[in-house]
């Protein structure tokens, strides 16, 4: 199954009542995705795990009332690598921009230009974020008035940022890929006079240590110490981890 590629130059007004739940994702190809997990995994295994993360995250998002699923993907030309991995309701929109902050800002601008009433930019490394958290983000963005919704990660970054207007401030003067990303983003928002809504803390799976946390959560039922609720069941990821263990 292939998915429609949406173009911000051709807006769709009928989408205005929806929040675009937009996963920022690289095309899943060995050697391009989740490389910090090798070792302990092989590059082929990291790509397979990335596919499981995509399947679980998008299946979770597809259940959120008031949301519409998208993948903001890179590189252009590898769209076919997503075929059959996503719920049939999902669409694709190409990433653009150079640095990470610029890519996030451009994604927000493009998704809102397509016609959605709000956008949540979501990482592809957190397959067990509870569905209720995504629903809360959509609910907060549906309220009257302008605001930014942020889901902090326990490593100091964030797994979600949601906006109704493509403000540049949350993406400027941020020390990306450090433990101060969330703190700096909140500060930039407050400097710009933007209301900030903070969601529950969750975590990214991007190295051997966080892979171990994921295994404990999904295979042993051990909730991460910072978690206020149970995570999403992530069945595709569970199957991969069980096969890996065997």
UniProtKB/TrEMBL annotation:
PANTHER family: GLYCOSYLTRANSFERASE, SLL1095 PROTEIN. Signal peptide: none annotated. Pfam families: DUF2064 (PF09837). This is Glycosyltransferase. It comes from Granulicella tundricola (strain ATCC BAA-1859 / DSM 23138 / MP5ACTX9).
């Amino acid at each position: 199954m292939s998915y429609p590629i949406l173009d911000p130059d051709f807006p769709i007004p009928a989408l205005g009542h929806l929040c675009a739940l937009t996963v920022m994702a690289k095309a899943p190809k060995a050697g391009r995705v989740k490389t910090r997990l090798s070792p302990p995994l092989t590059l082929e295994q990291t790509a397979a795990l990335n596919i499981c993360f995509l399947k679980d995250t998008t299946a979770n998002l597809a259940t959120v009332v008031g949301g519409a699923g998208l993948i903001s993907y890179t590189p252009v030309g590898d769209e076919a690598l997503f075929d059959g991995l996503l719920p049939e309701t999902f669409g694709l929109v190409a990433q653009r921009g150079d640095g990470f902050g610029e890519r996030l800002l451009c994604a927000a601008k493009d998704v809102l230009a397509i016609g959605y009433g709000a956008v949540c930019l979501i990482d592809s490394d957190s397959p067990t974020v509870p569905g209720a958290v995504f629903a809360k983000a959509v609910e907060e963005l549906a309220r009257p008035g302008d605001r930014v919704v942020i889901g902090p990660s326990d490593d100091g970054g964030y797994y979600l940022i949601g906006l109704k207007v493509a403000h540049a401030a949350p993406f400027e003067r941020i020390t990306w890929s450090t433990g101060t990303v969330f703190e700096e983003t909140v500060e930039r928002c407050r400097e710009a006079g933007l209301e900030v809504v903070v969601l529950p803390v969750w975590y990214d799976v991007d190295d051997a240590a966080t892979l171990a946390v994921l295994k404990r959560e999904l295979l042993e039922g051990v909730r991460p110490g910072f978690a206020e609720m149970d995570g999403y069941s992530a069945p595709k990821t569970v199957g991969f981890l069980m096969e890996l263990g065997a």
